[in-house]
Amino acid sequence: MEIDLRFFATFREAVGRKEISREFEDGTTVGDVLATLEAEYEGLEGRLLEDGAVAEHLSVLKNGRDVVHMDGVDTDLAEGDLLSVFPPVAGGGR
Length: 94
Hints:
19% of the residues lie in helices and 28% in strands. It is α+β, with helices and mostly antiparallel strands. It has one domain: Ubiquitin-like (UB roll). A hairpin with a 2-residue loop joins strand 5 and strand 6. The chain is globular and about 30 Å long. The mean pLDDT is 93.
């Protein structure tokens, strides 16, 4: 199945593109995709997963909905899904 992946800020820099489409096996989960990305892109290694869960302060959206409010890393993916990955954001202080 084909999944679209969208990256923001420093993650976009690590991947070298804003969006990519990738083929994954049926039954692939969000955790499977994040682990694959960590293994393939040096700049993402150790930044997406912590102790088997989505890294703290990281936002991962499946079709616009935060996977934390779904099944986390166990959230199933299907053909045509869009997975967006946002790095932690700091700031806002005065």
